[in-house]
Amino acid sequence: MADLHAWWMYPLLTLLGGALGTYGTLIGAGGGIFLVPALLVLYPQESPNTIASMSLAVVFFNAASGTIAYARMRRIDYHAGLLFAVATVPGAILGAYITSLLSRQLFDLILSVVILSLAALIIFRPIPRAQPTHLPRYGLTSHFTDAKGVDYHYTFSTPRGVGLSFLIGWVSSLLGIGGGAFHVPVLVYLLHFPLHVATATSHFTLAIMSLIGSVTHVFMGDFAHGIRRTLALAVGVLVGAQLGASLSQRFRGSTLIRILAVGLLLFGLRLVMQALHP
């Protein structure tokens, strides 16, 4: 791994992008939660700014491709997705700026804590709760049917969704992980979305949020050393996202949640080891 700028690394990055795009879209996380740890391992000398900017750009391509696939399945709650996306914008811009203030070791430690916390939440609360009996005071109700004829009907708290989306935009842009890994558990556990709707809506929100974060990194000049590597990864995720969306129809919701938890746990532990022994 001494010279990962060699030409032969670009096809390998494309394969990595394909694998992460498939896995990230399958669980609705956009791949960023796994791409950042992978880039930190592959490029230990790169700054947090470069890592975060590369990841967010790849997450955008992944989320955009996944959104197209989920739109065909008619599983996206566009009203909620647009509301959450608008709420993430201020946080995404703030997070992209704060990244430049972090050292590489501190960046690794923060990310590992976030990843392991998410894994713990999912592992110890693996089955989403049903829609609560007492609906939220300022609730928004959604009712639609997907392409397979499955009917969805649920109500979520608008203030809670907006507030959590702002925090997700800030943290995810700060770490370059896009936010899908946060949004899916939030939508399922705290806002009581059906899991398949949560993964699809998360991708729609993620596409908008990651685009804003990426544009902010561009204006800050963080893409100076990562454009070619980003493009190689993007080619892979564009294909992988379509495959992941297709595979998602073959898994039960509880299985998708557990797949997400296992991936988070493995990457989180790897980052802890790297941060403690740089």
Number of helical runs?
A: 10
State the order of secondary-structure elements, H for helix, E for strand. Answer: HHHHHEEHHHHH
Radius of gyration over all CA atoms, rounded: 18 Å
- Characterize the largest beta sheet: strand count, sense, and whether it forms a barrel: 2 strands, antiparallel
What is the mean predicted local confidence, pLDDT?
Answer: 78
Parts with pLDDT < 50 across at least 5 consecutive residues: none
Structural domains: how many: 1
Short description:
β1 and β2 (151-157) form a beta hairpin. It contains ten helices and two strands, in the order αααααββααααα. Helix content is 72%, strand content 5%.
Please characterize this protein's 3D structure.
With 278 residues, this protein is mainly α. The protein has one domain. It is built from ten helices and two strands, in the order H-H-H-H-H-E-E-H-H-H-H-H. It has helices at residues 9-27, 32-42, 48-73, 78-99, 104-124, 158-175, 180-190, 195-219, 227-248, 253-276; strands spanning 139-145, 151-157. A two-stranded antiparallel ribbon has the order 1-2. A hairpin with a 5-residue loop joins strand 1 and strand 2 (151-157). Helix 3 runs parallel beside helix 9 (227-248), helix 4 (78-99) packs parallel to helix 8 and helix 5 runs antiparallel to helix 10 (253-276). The radius of gyration is 18 Å and the shape is globular. The two termini are 15 Å apart.
